[in-house]
Amino acid sequence: MKHKKIFLSMLLLFVIYLSFIALGLPDALLGSAWNLVREDLNVSLGTLGIMTVVIYIMSIISTYNAPRLLRLLQTKWITFVSILLTGTALIIMSTVSEFYQILFFAIPLGIGAGAIDVSLNHYLAKNYKASHMNYLHSFYGIGVTLGPSIMAATLQHNSWRLGYVIVGSILLGIAVIVLLSFKLWKKETAIEKEYHEPIKLHDALKTKKVINSLVIFLVYVHIESLLGAWISSYIYIDKNVSYAVAALFATTYYLGLTLGRILAGIMAHKINSAKLIIIGISMMLSGAVLFLFNYHSLVFYFVIVGLLGIGSGPIFPNMMFLNNEKFTQKYLSKVISLQMVIGYMGFGLLTPLAGLIFDQISIGLYPYVLLFSTSILTLSIYLFLKQKIQVKD
User: Could you read off the pLDDT of 10-21 as tens digits, one per residue?
Assistant: First the structure.
């Protein structure tokens, strides 16, 4: 009986991991196909920014209201419906003839992403170990790498629409798997749903360490997107390499990020979340400092970017897991939703602001912006971790 219970728990964990692949699959899809999409739909290069803004606004709205959804619905239903909506939207997007139509179907993409993110992070933090949280976010890395890879394959046949159909179909398949797994999910009782009762924003922000944690998520997500979005451009312009070689640096970062989360999951059996975060931020700060210097060989830059990626790996999932220790159940879903909202702002506000600085002054400032942001993150993590007392009601 005990072995059966463990098996079913692991089976559900596999389904949750698949759901996080579903979360990552659409994220870089349009960006990787944009050169062909914009020609097909006859829009400018910068129009992609409008799409990004719509998705992130919808994600923020969905994320902020996630505690209300969790109060009304079981996590399994939120996950199933969100993946179903996302997959359907992608398939319909493959048929559009005008850009405004893509913009319209970006709405369910953003809503679905925000709902999955908060609900599954909350469910895993409550019901599984820290190692599983690290593995969960590794699967997001698999999804966000797999999506552009599928698109790259279809672009060889001069078709971005087929890429959307394939990814949308994969999402619908994952939605079916989630539906078939319903009996495996732990039923959230009425008492547990009371944990999602409305908490006023003012009261949540007054809770000890909440603002500190929000700063960490804001700056961390900004650094992650700063590396993912701008590292290739910096290397291309500053180091005078080809498009293909420059693109490898973004791939190196994301592979390092995924590897860092897998390693953190393995290490979590012997090292607690706080220490994993310290190891990660130490590697990031070291990488940011090393990035300031000029090297004759690109190999050194690949190693440093890989170091930054591996260091980034443990921070987000372990900060998410620490919520369960730092905050009581009453505040947990509210705190997680706020962290996700502020994280989206790090991507949607700070990184474009950095881009404006690079555009107006010089992308040569990139290493200094990276070091400044990493230093702020290091200080914020230190202040957060030095307080070890759990918040009481």
Answer: 898 899 999 989
